[in-house]
Amino acid sequence: MLLRTAQLHCRIAHQNFSRSRVPIPSPLRPGAHRYGGLPYCEFSTRGRLSKDQYGPSRTVGQPIAGTTSSPDKVGSAVAKDVVSASKSGSKKPSTLLSETTVTLKEQRKVDWAIMKEMAKYLWPKQDDWNTKLRVGIALSLLVGGKILNVQVPFYFKSIVDSMNVDFAAIGGTAWTVGGAMIIAYGATRIGATLFQELRNAVFASVAQKAIRKVARNVFDHLLKLDLNFHLSRQTGGLTRAIDRGTKGISFLLTSMVFHVLPTALEISMVCGILTYQYGPKFAAITAATMLAYTAFTITTTAWRTKFRKQANAADNQGATIAVDSLINYETVKYFNNEQFEVSRYDQALRKYEAASIKVTTSLAFLNSGQNMIFSSALAAMMYLASDGVATGQLTVGDLVMVNQLVFQLSMPLNFLGSVYRELRQSLMDMETLFNLQKFNINVKEAPDAKPLQLRQGGEIRFENVTFGYLPERPILKNVSFTIPAGKKIAIVGPSGCGKSTILRLLFRFYDVHEGRILIDGQDIRGLTVASLRKAIGVVPQDTPLFNNTIEHNIRYGKIDATTEEVKMAAQRAHIHELIERLPAGYDTPVGERGMMISGGEKQRLAVSRLILKDPPLLFFDEATSALDTYTEQALLQNINSILKDKARTSVFVAHRLRTIYDSDQIIVLKDGHVVESGSHIELLELGGVYAELWNTQEMDIASS
């Protein structure tokens, strides 16, 4: 489950406050997460495109021509309003509003945008008659339950008045009337409760369906974001934001139907009854109480918001530290830094503690003020009712009925105060969730994108490609080379020269700043992303695996593969026999990120996955770096046989030149340029960069 990682955070950071929960801010604080010395917002979109059919040059932040920068699907309207508010209320427009202080007007704009978006789930525009029927039935049960609820004080009044007589004079008639009223009183209360529970049951699927749709769309959007977003993310904070946001959806939808509307309806009915039965004085006190109670609640809650945000930031920081330390458990142990990590975590908890105290004390002030307003109104109404009884205008039953009505009003009022606090909490959580969707998808398909067609066997051509992760620091500088179809090509060079970047550009994790990349004469920006990535198989240097079984991780290369196909791929990757010797065989779990198996085993599983995918274009990024010499040679022989079997286009990125010396062509990169190209023998004879690298490695081998 996506949300499980956040549970690693110690439970001490999860204190619940009376009628109030501390919302979680977005973990995506661009100014706080740096890569190469710059905030995320400064490099999340890349410089410019070449002036070809994909549009003229674009500056940082602009979308590719023919695409839009608005977030997709659910939450787009919300995200636009959030972006607008953040631009006007903060100097860092990429910072999420749940972490920043904005004006009340701006915050209301965002809140209304979220509620309008959620209202679509209560009455969808599509022909979702099941949802509409359930909402209609729930509202009918709501109205019916409230009508029954306001009948209770009437029956209570009748019971008291029927008992306040001379039984000796009237006889059994009083008992008959009183008994009937008692039965009606009980039946009315039971009926109101049944209506309420039926309403909850009918509406349950509406709320859960909304949660599923929003969570799915947010997750889908996260998977579509570019690599920079995921390189700079904080896993603990990100999963916590999604968890709290989805919970906020449930509360918001439920409160809109079951709390706000019912309370407004009940207050209106009680005010009407008091006016009709007892005159305008009672109604005036009721109306004044409503206004004072609501104004005090809204004003005080808005004041308390800053304390909640401080607690949010501290809580999120603690979660991130805890998750980061536990994921890097071995590193912590290697450097004996347990106390350092505990100290960092404790500092975050101290900040959370200080903010939580402010939240709790301000909540006590809020509750005290609400109780004072209501108690004053109750005392005033009881005085008027008692005066009416003393003058003979009202009966004792009327006094009891007024008391019942006022107390009946106290429940929705008290509940409304609590709901408002929870509603603010939910809106803050949902704001963070929807803000995840405001991050633009920078690598998008062109509107007229076409599937990749390998007409010439998979020739790859880089033409005058310039690219850098930071605009002022280009990695590749006007690079041009051709990888012939069906050939084995190696790319070598010193660290940081851009070898792995070539794969990322070919896979369209990023778009080039200048120039273009062609596969069989087709610009990859004009291809559908799915067809492009389906045609490329990759064995990365770092091979993180899913926290699942060995079979699941191999089958990931081809989801619908049979067990026999999985085992065949493992055999060709020289890992089948090792798997069979394990007690659970292919059902053996590999642990989080594959930490329960060795680096060499992880790489062989990655090769198995690639073999199972069976793509026409193969990329090996230091694919055998974690293997011993014997296993490496056996695996390379197997890979070479696979390449010859179907004459696939293959690219090997390598530091150990002995693993690629038999390549058809070797491309040498240095300082972002192609400085040499040729076969192993040709490059040695040239006596340049490649020859220097080769001689250095051979000397190291000889001296070891």
Automatic annotation (TrEMBL):
One of its GO terms (cellular component) is mitochondrial inner membrane. One of its GO terms (molecular function) is ATP binding. It is found in: Mitochondrion inner membrane. Keywords: ATP-binding, Membrane, Nucleotide-binding, Translocase, Transmembrane, Transmembrane helix, Transport. One of its GO terms (biological process) is iron-sulfur cluster export from the mitochondrion. The keyword Transport applies. Residues 49-73 are annotated as: Disordered. Residues 460-696 form the ABC transporter domain. Pfam families: ABC_membrane, ABC_tran. The keyword Magnesium does not apply. SMART domains: AAA. Its main location: mitochondrion. Belongs to the ABC transporter superfamily. ABCB family. Heavy Metal importer (TC 3.A.1.210) subfamily. This is Iron-sulfur clusters transporter ATM1, mitochondrial.
